[in-house]
Amino acid sequence: MTLLEVKDLNLWYGNRQVLFGVDFTLGKGEILCIVGESGSGKSSILYSVMSLLPHYAKVEGKITFEGENLLLAGEDKKRSIRGRKIGMVFQEPSAYLDPLFTVGSQVEEAYKIHFPEDANSKEKALQAMKKAGIPDPEEKYRLYPHQLSGGLKQRVCIATALVCDPPLILADEPTTALDVSVQKRILNLFFSLKEEGRSVILVTHDFGVVAQIADRVIVLKEGHIVERGSVFEIFDNPKDPYTKQLLEVAL
Ligand SMILES: Nc1ncnc2c1ncn2[C@@H]1O[C@H](COP(=O)(O)OP(=O)(O)OP(=O)(O)O)[C@@H](O)[C@H]1O
Ligand SMILES: [Mg+2]
């Protein structure tokens, strides 16, 4: 069953086009990895799906999520989807977290936006923090972002993305700041999300991560998809020279 369909997506920032006819679908319970060099437009795809583009961006095409074209949705509808139906782990956790609030209250706030009446919001936040692999969530809840390591901040962002149990999670380089053992735990978490029937789009530079976790892969170059396939096809029989080059550098 298709959860998300991106069709002929074109994106401009001002006059500059950065995505060209991007097409892909994502099934329920599927993990799609987007790979490509810096500046190829990976984050821009996620921001388009999340309806979080800057005002000077122009976007064309179709992004159909649960049967509705998000590009035609009004602000209220987009707000009701963002965080609740689509959770996002941003590339730069420090920029995303507010230094003035405890990390726990920020996870909790992400829940309260969508469930203002629920008296168990703190419990929900603690559960999400635990699920994201944060040890001692009760204690960490009370800390401010600057009191946490980069890896823990990253996991707080993951908790924020998970707290409303969204069916789709977008994760932009979620394991980059993490050491190998924590990385492993986060990849296991994505697996468990998949087992729960959730879908994940994971942006990564790391082909090791792709090999461990992806069902399907798209390779992006200068805003164009130059190759797509199952993880086996991409690793065993890459066709595009650019994919081969990326694999050569990585492996
Ligand atoms: N908000 C923005 N305003 C203007 N240009 C932008 C904006 N965000 C990204 N760009 C430009 O769009 C292109 C695609 O950027 P994007 O951040 O999507 O790439 P990326 O593949 O995620 O790169 P990285 O691996 O470095 O994160 C780049 O040329 C970038 O400079
Ligand atoms: Mg990016």
What does this structure look like?
- The chain is of the alpha/beta class and 251 residues long.
- The protein has a domain at 92-165.
- Helix content is 39%, strand content 27%.
- The protein is built from eleven helices and ten strands.
- The strands form two sheets. It has a six-stranded mixed sheet, with helices on both faces.
- A hairpin with a 2-residue loop joins strand 1 (2-13) and strand 2 (16-27).
- The longest helix has 16 residues, at 180-195.
- The protein is globular, with a radius of gyration of 18 Å.
- The chain starts with a strand and ends with a helix.
- The mean pLDDT is 94.
- The structure holds adenosine-5'-triphosphate and magnesium ion.
- Residues 13, 18, 36, 38-44, 54, 91 line the site of adenosine-5'-triphosphate (ATP).
The oligomeric status of these chains comes to single chain
**Arithmetic mean of pLDDT:** 94
Note the gap between the termini. Answer: 33 Å
Number of DSSP strands?
A: 10
- Give a short account of the largest sheet: 6 strands, mixed
| Relative strand content | 25-35%
Helix content: 25-40%
Strand order in space, largest sheet: 6-7-8-3-9-10
What is the string of SSEs from the N terminus onward? EEEHEEHEHHHHHEHEHEEHH
- Given helix and strand content, the structural type is alpha/beta
> Helix count?
11
What are the key terms here?
251 residues; alpha/beta; 6-stranded mixed sheet; 4-stranded antiparallel sheet; 10 strands; 39% helix; binds adenosine-5'-triphosphate; binds magnesium ion
Helix-strand blueprint:
Blueprint (H helix, E strand, L loop, with lengths): L1 E12 L2 E12 L3 E5 L6 H8 L7 E9 L2 E2 L5 H7 L4 E4 L3 H4 L6 H10 L8 H11 L5 H5 L8 H13 L5 E5 L7 H16 L3 E5 L3 H7 L2 E6 L2 E7 H6 L4 H10 L1
Parallel strand pairs: 3-8, 3-9, 6-7, 7-8
Antiparallel strand pairs: 1-2, 1-4, 4-5, 9-10
Helix pairs in contact: 4-5, 4-7, 5-7
The chain binds adenosine-5'-triphosphate (ATP) and magnesium ion (MG).
